[in-house]
Structure formats: C-alpha cells, structure tokens
Specification:
NAD(P)-bd_dom_sf, 12 helices, oxidoreductase, five-stranded parallel beta sheet, alpha/beta, seven-stranded parallel beta sheet, D-glycerate dehydrogenase, D-isomer_DH_NAD-bd, Rossmann fold, D-isomer_DH_CS, 2 domains
Length: 320
C-alpha cells in the first residue's frame, strides 16, 4: 500500500484524489507546518509527499525515507530541496510553475503601488484617529506613471509584472542571466547590466529565483548605487537580499522605501528592525494567494504524484 504524506491541510477534493492512490497522512493545519520530528516519522514508509517551502528536504530526510519516489513542492522555487541528493536517491522532485505567475505578478504591482502611494501608512493614520484635516503634502507619494522600473529577473513572473506596467507609461529596464528578446520586442524592455539597472531605476523590482549567483545580490554596494528616492520591491526570494544592508539603506535614506513579500527567515521574528520602519511594507508571502491559484497549485502537485506513482513520470520535474 502506497503512503502519501501531506504537510498542510488541503481541501477534501484533493485529498479524495490522493486517497485513490494510497493511504494519505495529512497534517491538519493550514497555517502551522508539520513539526520536523513528525515529518521524519511519517516519511519513513512514505512513497510520496506533498510539501511547502517550510519543509527542508536534506540528507536526514532521504536517509529516513528509503521508499520515497516523488516530492511535490507546492511552489515554483525549490531551494528548500537538495536536488542532487534527490537524484542520487532516485526521487523525482516537482514544482508548480506557470499556474501562479499571474497572481504573483498582480501582487507585485499591488505591493509596488501600496508602497509608492503610502497606502498602509495612510490607512493606519486614519484608523488611529490622526486625520484632522487635509494637507497638500499629506502622505505624498511617488508616481509609478512615467517612472523607470528596473526588473531583476525577467522570467515568467518578471514578464507578467512588466506586462502590467504598460498602462503606466513606464520605461522598463531589466537584468537577467541572458537577454530575453521576446520581452524586449513585446514589452519594450531594455536589457542593461546590474549596475545600470540600480542607478537608473526609480523602482527596482526583484522577481528572480534564488541561486548561488543571486544570493545576497542586493547588498550594501547595491543599495548604495540606487537613487535616494528609489523604492525596492522583492517578490522573488528572501535570501537574495542582505536584510542588514537593507535596514541600513532605509535608516540612512539611501533608498526611500521597500515592499517585501519574501524574507530570509519566514515568518519574520518580531524583533526584526524592519518591523519598526514606516518605510517598509512587509507581507506574509502571499504572492500566489488567490483561491484559484492555490487550487491550481495543489492540483498540479496531485497530478505530479499521480503521474509518478502510476506511470513513472511527472508533469513538472525539476531534477535530472
């Protein structure tokens, strides 16, 4: 009998599909991850698992799970999984690309506008009873219309974000490992080196995946090169940013503000200095958080598990 471990609570319609494939062990919490020790215990006789970015898949996991055939990661990124070890243990790893692209790009633009127009600060001002009269520069923000927007990482999400800027008459710069001619032709984006992107952009938006090349890419030197009134947005991965450097850049007005949907450590610790800064808007990693998108992500995970267990192949395998 095949066993499938699911590390978060998911709707019954998806559990029903998995139960047609084998015995399902699900952690019945939507917001709290399955404890590590519980996961290691449940995975011992498992054939498949459906996980989130909260689960770290390393040597300890593979040693504990000799029967494991497939890991379905409910995310586009998979930096929480050691792919080389997975391949060495003949375990197929899958992700959920494409289905969350539009929702994440939509959230990115929402976050950009919220920071630029000081929406969160203004709402708090009203709710705290501080709004007594109108002022000509009360919560005066920054125009996205006509601005230069620099996108770091012109993948699917970067392109979808850029596509949403067409109505704002922006100039779009981008930096990528390689040029993306389709984005240049369709969106009018201009490829530049990283330093030019930092120096010329009014908004710098990170949509890149975490790799050895992108980790800590936004460090003290990077923030020093940005305009003093620039806004930094990150909807890529938290470890791409040196958060100590970001705090210093905000503290010394080297940049104007930031909006983060991802952080190095999630959830953020409550003594993190970013939480004391009005210039920082921080969201709980909700880039793909629409019902339709999350349903599609889970369905793709289920399809990948079914494909591997029944036919030995997955729709979106990421390792060799």
């Amino acid at each position: 009998m095949k066993k499938i471990v699911v590390t978060r609570k998911i709707p019954a319609e998806f559990l029903d599909q998995l139960e047609n494939l084998g015995e399902v062990e699900v952690w019945n919490s939507e917001y709290e991850p399955m404890p590590r020790e519980r996961f290691l215990t449940e995975i011992k006789d498992a054939t498949a698992c459906l996980i989130t970015l909260s689960e770290r898949i390393d040597q300890e996991v593979f040693e504990a799970a000799p029967h494991l055939k497939v890991i379905a990661n409910m995310a586009v990124g998979y930096d929480n999984i050691d792919l080389q070890l997975a391949s060495r243990h003949d375990v197929i790893v899958t992700n959920t690309p494409s289905v969350l692209t539009e929702a994440t790009a939509e959230l990115g633009v929402t976050l950009t506008l919220s920071v630029a127009r000081k929406v969160i600060e203004a709402q708090d001002y009203v709710k705290q009873g501080k709004w007594q009269s109108w002022g000509p520069y009360l919560f005066a923000g920054k125009d996205l219309h006509g601005a230069t927007v620099g996108i770091f990482g012109m993948g699917d999400i970067g392109k979808a974000y850029a596509r949403r800027l067409t109505g704002f008459n922006t100039t779009i710069l981008y930096h990528n490992r390689s040029r993306h001619l389709q984005a240049e032709q369709e969106l009018g984006a201009r490829y530049v080196d990283f330093e030019t992107l930092l120096k010329e952009s009014d908004f710098v938006v990170c949509t890149a995946p975490l790799t050895s090349e992108t980790e800590n890419k936004f460090d003290r030197a990077a923030f020093n090169q940005m305009k003093n009134d620039a806004i930094f947005i990150n909807i890529g991965r938290g470890p791409i940013v040196d958060e100590e450097a970001l705090v210093e850049a905000l503290k010394h007005n080297e940049i104007a503000a930031c909006g983060l949907d991802v952080l190095r450590e999630e959830p953020i610790r409550m003594d993190h200095p970013l939480l004391d800064m009005e210039q920082a808007v921080i969201l709980p990693h909700i880039g793909s958080a629409t019902k339709e998108t999350r349903d599609n992500m889970i369905q793709l995970c289920v399809d990948n598990i079914e494909g591997v267990l029944q036919r030995g192949e997955a729709k979106t395998q990421v390792n060799d």
